[in-house]
């Protein structure tokens, strides 16, 4: 045979990549998530692998692309789900009973004519003296 059975078998180093190239609908989410794309490409381009035809290399690269596409699809689905949950929280109604909030007139609140920070007695000196 012109390719290594150990390399491309289901339990082999590139078995999932080979399966993604030929029957990508049978891939499970766990298989896709556990596949490391960079190490798979390193194994494809490794010099220790017996020389394979360009057709097999094309199938292996197709499998890598399909696995990458599935990973992106899963990531998009997860992000979209979290986004929808966050939007649902924002528009959701509160389950707490509403407490009657009393409002006052704008003119009933007294505001100083001039804001001076020195006018406030913050008791800072007393706290510093007692701590030190």
From TrEMBL:
Q: What is the protein name given in its UniProt record?
A: Rad21/Rec8-like protein N-terminal domain-containing protein
User: Where primarily located?
Assistant: nucleus
InterPro entries the UniProt entry points to? Rad21/Rec8-like, Rad21_Rec8_N
Gene Ontology CC entries for this record: cohesin complex; nucleus
Cell compartment(s), UniProt: Nucleus
Top-level taxonomic group: Eukaryota
Question: Domain Rad21/Rec8-like protein N-terminal, which positions?
Answer: 1-87
Provide this UniProt record's keywords sorted from A to Z: Nucleus
The organism encoding this protein is: Erythranthe guttata
Q: Name one GO biological process term.
A: sister chromatid cohesion
A Pfam family:
Rad21_Rec8_N
Q: Which PANTHER family match?
A: SCC1 / RAD21 FAMILY MEMBER, SISTER CHROMATID COHESION 1 PROTEIN 2
